Amino acid sequence: MNIPRLGPMSVASPSTAQSHINSLPNELLNTVFMFVLFDNPDSSDARPTLLQIGRGLPPQFVLMQVCKHWLDLCTSLNSAWTNIVINLLPVNLQRIPPPGSPTWNRFAVACKRVLKWSEPLLLSLQLENWPMNEDAVRGVSGMGLNEQVLTAEGYCYRILQLAISQCKRWKDFSLVGYRPSNPAVPWAQLMEVAHRIPMLESFALVHMQRKALRSLPQPDYTNLFLDAPRLSCATFGFHNPTLNLPWSLLKVVAIDSAGFESYRQFADYIHLVATRTTASTVSLINSMPMHILQDTEDIGLTLPTIENSHISTLDLLSYMVLPPLRLPNLTTLNFEVSHTSSADRCGVATIEKLLRDSDCHLLTLMIDQRMGRSGVHIMAHLLPYLDTLENFTFTGTAIDEFTVNRIAEQMFLLLADPIRLPKLLTLTVNIDNSQLARRDVNPFYCSFDSRLGKAVWEIVNRRMTEWPEVRLGRPEVILKSFHVNVVFQDAPVKASTSRELLASEEWYSIKAAGVDFKINPPVESDSADDQSRPGRFF
């Protein structure tokens, strides 16, 4: 075989080996941009673009400043501008630009351009901190779309005008009020979108004034969202007006519990929605004002029980008292609680009554107790109604670095008796360290001690292992997974102390059991001979 002789090889110089990034095709550059901006070349849904006076530039604008070619690419990359949040108040409320400042008009023009750059794609748009009450809206309602913007009120109104001008492209639209200013829903202006929202899938009008408006627009304002053939999610909370919605289309309904003047108004509104909606998921968001909570006891005794067989998921993301409800097909319940007394109508008592009246077969339960002193013992009142429960998640607040150990002990006591939660398949315990920062305690710090090891091992041994020696007296099913997470602002903390846990016999037994138990942050052994240490298996 003749092998050709190769000539001498040379290494290309850096100047010839590298090509300028702008030599790449525009399509490839666009893909790179989408990865840089959103970690996803196909969508910007996961990370909205936030515009606010006084805030740093969004990442798209940073890329645009590199060169004119990148500016042209970014402004023509419409998929990079489809998820926009405009905060209507400046970052620093102590340094609001004065009337006549060019900042107002300059920022309004920038927002107009951003909204145009996404055309013709569908648009997800949220206007945050809407501060305008009825009088403020009336004072600028005559402003034309091309007029110079000179004031804060004019700026907010202009952004609303720009949003409405894009309504045919709305996929999601939210108007979130700035509650301290007692904002009003600008019904007269929003009426311009009636019959012009064919692509709208969800809307939200929240944090608005509780009192009824002094003046209302034309009589058909209640039909604002009636002609929205794709609408599936609605978030609102005000007793007046009562919107006419395409109820049969809605899959998710969320009600702002803080948008009412009295508990009677709230209860009547829940009754109205429950009798109309066929949505499978209903959420109650934002806590009731204290003055409303004070008049619940006497009123609650006079209210009829509301029944809805369509609701399968109920999210109670606020501090409230529920009116009498019967949800026979409820399978998923997520609620926040701060009071633990069974006599406290604002605490777990309202949930106990709901489960008792509903006679449902609950499969998934999530309890969030980030207010007050966390304790799994609140579950004791609910146990008679949880025989079908398969998935349980408890989120508590850390009051010190040892909270996770204390909660684990309580969880063991809850699950020690096999007749409790006999169908449980997954168990998750989340400990949130956010409150520690307010106490001058390091929120990235936690301590795992022997209490955690003993409690976890008892749960693993009694609920998760399949050894024949421990089958007697077991619950009906095997617990498939048990996870413990300690976090601060959704980031895992560093387990700075775990020596006591690592030295325990229980820890070696847990690892030897081969079950799906995970702890976050992970506990790393610093012992070279940990595998040789005997454990307790039953």
UniProtKB/TrEMBL annotation:
It comes from the Eukaryota. Gene3D superfamilies: 1.20.1280.50. This is F-box domain-containing protein. It comes from Cylindrobasidium torrendii FP15055 ss-10.
